[in-house]
Amino acid sequence: MKKLVVLITIIFAGISFFSCEDLDDKQEEPQLIIKFRFDPNQVRLNNLGQPSSVAPGNAAQSPNFNAISAHYFELAPTAFTQLGDGTILYHAPETTEGGAVAIDFDQAVIVGEGEAFLKIPLSQVAQGNYEYVRVSLSYQDYNISVRNNGLDYEGRLASFVGYNTYINTHTIGSNSFPINANRLQGYWAFALNDFPYATSGQAPAGATTVPNPIASTSPIPAGSCVVTGKFAENLVINGNESRDIVVTLSLSINNSFEWQEVTTDGKYEPSIGENVVDMGLRGLIPSYIK
User: Fold this and answer.
1) CA 116, CA 33: separation in Å to the nearest integer?
2) For residue range 264-283, what is the model confidence (pLDDT) as tens digits?
3) Under 8 Å CB-to-CB from 104, ≥6 apart: which residues?
């Protein structure tokens, strides 16, 4: 009987040992994780990264964000690093289905606030000392307030801010928008939440604000949506990381949805001809936790 107890003890000890060993083998290596945050109180910037107010004759509101997508992510060592010369960590799928090269919306990664947009093993990130983040935003999904005949309604807007996007069919709630073509930066679609109303349109070309505080030393192409932000303290990747690094991209949505007023009341009223003039994010502040 004693021999049997000893044998069972040895067997269970072996199982425990190998089980722990298997768990250790399956542990993931440290990752670089990218997340988004939407801040209505963050400073509102213009294209040059300077504080900006709403233009005379216009009005704006801070939308309630549901989701976002991006098609390009880069870490830049200095303000003199040209776009594309930094460490490129992500470039979303593109297609020529609609003619010119465009972002393939069917393959877009769309996330909400605080969700992981990107996870990359740190062993695959070039070692370096990074001062800036550059992210090309492509799609926004948010709620806005709309006025019609003196009453205010809440609706949901899909805003395509990438340089060019190929869209088969996209949806807002139960509303379907068949496109099957490319749409340049500024295409949008809108639907009321509680009523059977939907519409779409195109903001003026080049009117989307894209803050770039290093425009004088590292410009971005016209029509792109490469937003640039500076770390408060440089992000250093040395290759010896033992834990995840979580980078949070805080985007300013401070009065980021802007329209030209017909009635000066601060209410967006498309039924009387108030047109959208800007849907760009109003600044980027990156931070990280090691």
Assistant:
1) 6
2) 999 999 899 998 889 999 99
3) 92, 93, 94, 95, 97, 166
The sign of the dihedral angle between the CA atoms of 249, 252, 253, 256 is: negative
Q: How far apart are the first and last CA of the chain?
A: 54
pLDDT single digits (tens) 39-96 = 999 999 999 999 999 999 999 999 999 999 999 999 999 999 999 999 999 999 999 9
Model confidence, pTM: 0.88
According to DSSP, the β-strands at 276-278 and 257-260 are antiparallel
Cα–Cα distance between 128 and 76 in angstroms, integer? 9
Which amino acid, residue 50? Q
* Three-state helix/strand/coil letters over the chain: CHHHHHHHHHHHHHHHHHHHHHHHHHCCCCEEEEEEEEECCCCCECCCCCECCCCCCEEEECCEEEEEEEEEEEEECCCCCCCCCCEEEEECCEECCCCCCEEEHHHCCEECCCCEEEEEEHHHCCCEEEEEEEEEEEEEEEEEEEEECCEEEEEEEEEECCCEEEEEEEEECCEEEEEEEEEECCEEEEEECCCCCEEEEECCCCCCCCCCCCCCCCCCCCCCCEEEEEEEEEEEECCCCCCCEEEEEEEECCCCEEEECCCCCCCCCHHHCCCEEECCCCCEEEEEEC
